[in-house]
Structures are given as C-alpha cells and as structure tokens.
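Hi all, long-time lurker, first post. I run a small reading group and we've been trying to get comfortable going from sequence to structure in the token notation. Rather than ask abstract questions, I figured I'd post a concrete chain and ask someone more experienced to write out its structure so we can walk through it together at our next meeting. Sequence below, copied exactly:
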Amino acid sequence: MRWIYLAINILFLATTIIFAVQNLQVVTISFLGLGLRAPLALLVVVIYVIGAVTGGALFALLRKSVERSRPVRAPA
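-- Answer (accepted) --
Happy to help. Here is the structure in token form:
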C-alpha cells in the first residue's frame, strides 16, 4: 500500500510540474485588497507546498487524536 501512495504522490507532483512549466505567464492575484503579480508557475508551486504542509499536519493531528481516544488495555 505504501508503494501505491508513493506512486500517486509522484504522479501528482509530475502533473503539477508539467502544468507549472506550461503556464509561465505573469498573473495578478487579489486578496483582501492586496494585489500580487507573479508567474503562475511560481504560484502553483507555492500553493502546492502550502497544501502539502497543511495536509500533512492535519493528518498527523488526526492520527494522534485517534490514538489518544483508544482505551488502554490492561496486560493479560
């Protein structure tokens, strides 16, 4: 199962890189009155990294929460 997850991650990363290389034009992004002009490829990579970090952190938090909620069994 570990190899399947690794293959999916590699496939997604390769797709993201191909998309970024094919979209090098500069775009403008506005958020809360602030504007940012940057290449679309750079924005895609930054958003991908932010998603990977927050997704990994959320997964670790949920795993720790599940482990803490399990009852402790007494030794037999």
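A couple of things your group might point at:
The chain has a mean pLDDT of 83.
Strands lie at 26-31, 34-39.
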